[in-house]
Amino acid sequence: MTAPGTRKFWGWGVHGAGPSDEQVAGIQKTVEERFGRSLSRRAPPEIGDLDLPAPRVEPPAALAGLCSSAPDDRAGHHYGKSYRDIVRAYRGEFPHPPDHVARPTSEDEVAALLDWCADAHLTAVPYGGGSSVVGGVETGFDGDHRGVVSIDMERMGAVIEVDRTARAARIQAGAYGPALEDALRPHGLTLRHFPQSFEFSTLGGWIATRGGGHYATLYTHIDDFVASVRAVTPSGLYESRRLPGSGAGPSPDRMMLGSEGILGIVTEAWMRLQDRPTFRAGTSVRFEGEDGFLRGAEAVRAISQSGLFPANCRLLDAAEAQTSGAGDGTYAVLVLGFESADHPLDVWMARAAELCRDAGGIVPEGALATRASRPDSGGGDREGAAGAWRRAFLQAPYVRDALVGVSVIAETFETAIPWDRFPDFHRQVMAATHSAVLRVCGAGQVACRFTHVYPDGAAPYYSVLAPARPGSELEQWAEIKQAAADALIAAGGTITHHHAVGRDHRPWYDMQRPEPFARALRAAKAELDPAAVLNPGVLIDPEPRR
Ligand SMILES: Cc1cc2nc3c(=O)[nH]c(=O)nc-3n(C[C@H](O)[C@H](O)[C@H](O)COP(=O)(O)OP(=O)(O)OC[C@H]3O[C@@H](n4cnc5c(N)ncnc54)[C@H](O)[C@@H]3O)c2cc1C
């Protein structure tokens, strides 16, 4: 057994965390009852069972101290954390692990590692928390390279400098969510970027993928908080000027935001911060009837166009509400929350409730008043439907590991679409995905929630839960994913709102992006990474070595 507290090489989080055996049995029973199938459970692999191929290269003496070829390091850096990744890892399939996992402690060491990779014809995969769900950190795409090094940024994870006046901090890319917030707390400040993967993802990963965080409105992507970026590219240091705003041509920050590790390794960034909120108001609103979700969407549109900008505005359809324990499966639920470090929120909350009632929502009595709380007590309504939803949200990745163990497909996909097209879009995506689920698995559920909303549209997020045939999970999921992604693009949406492109979304990303832009991206890559060392196949086709 691996020691409790160390990261799992096959799944989410650390060994010892997540549901107990008894709880897993409960999850299994619930799914069996829901889909009328009996499921059998397999145990995850032990590190000693793996038969990893030997490393193909050895690091030069000067870098040997930064590199590990320990089996759990190599297996743990083979994949990210998508459903496909967990299935393969749970089966003990690790055919192409990185030859070495390198953990630099300085920009000079990052540069030296990239030089080694270029000189020795190796691929370098930048690695933050490894929570990519799009094949962004997967190794094994070496092409004509002679090996692969996963460059894990965890030793460059400090908050280096805090500017209380401008409310900003200079933070190293390898900072994990909890450590970053711990370092800002004594200053009364917060980044308040809370993706579901917060615990096991890093600032560098959020920047490289343009991650989406806690805020449902106004500040949705990490982009909104980036004041400047510093990166080591194979062609040299890349640093933008820290400014509150600038109209000086295309933004150099933008070039690194969403670059997914193909242009350079982000080493640090100046991030815009906020005072820790002390006032909170929250409630959950029911939308009943067959069209409850669409009426909820109307309420959300009205709220997002009102200028109220709630921190939380998550609309769950009836199935999603039931799965998370926020409802009984007969009505949609809107989880609504406001936060401020400055003022009580009763007026905001009351107006949002009015907009919900106008759309036919049922707002519970007495849920509207602002509650003052300690700055670090977290956010939102911790009781009732909102509290249930939040607890389920944090447990979800652990539950997914358990579902993989009983051959149940549990995966999500997300997108964005303008309001005027939302109802038709949603119908088409639900129909295409649901019919693929029934065709492929014979039973299953597709549910939807909004993760982020804008004055001009929404970011719907779909969850698929379906019993698979043991051994065929990957093929079955691939067919469902193909149907869903084709529907997203055909109906005018984006292949991703915040999960990034990686390798898995390439076919649909290629359809979506303008071709001149693709050429410009390839040219930027050729300039910054002339030996085509970094993350081949992510965002653009692997380039032959130059
Ligand atoms: C359970 C779960 C929940 C999730 N919830 C959310 C969510 O709420 N919101 C959201 O946006 N995403 C979410 N994701 C996806 C994932 O967490 C994000 O893409 C996250 O931003 C990745 O951060 P990371 O540090 O884990 O990066 P990694 O997974 O290590 O890397 C992601 C990509 O960025 C590159 N990269 C990493 N670090 C650097 C660096 N320093 N410089 C250059 N490139 C780098 C990698 O090469 C890779 O292409 C979730 C994933 C899981 C498994």
Q: What's this model, at a glance?
A:
This protein has 546 residues and is an alpha+beta fold.
Task: Describe this structure as you would to a colleague.
The protein has 546 residues and is α+β, with helices and mostly antiparallel strands. The protein folds into two domains: 242 residues, Uridine Diphospho-n-acetylenolpyruvylglucosamine Reductase, domain 3, CATH 3.30.465.10; 212 residues, FAD-linked oxidase, cap domain/gating helix (Vanillyl-alcohol Oxidase, Chain A, domain 3, 3-Layer(aba) Sandwich), CATH 3.40.462.40. Helices cover 33% and strands 20% of the residues. The chain has 16 helices and 19 strands. A hairpin with a 2-residue loop joins strand 8 and strand 9. The longest helix is centred in the last third of the chain and has 22 residues. The chain is globular. The structure holds flavin-adenine dinucleotide. Flavin-adenine dinucleotide (FAD) binds next to strand 3, helix 7 and strand 10. Flavin-adenine dinucleotide binds next to strand 3, helix 7 and strand 10.
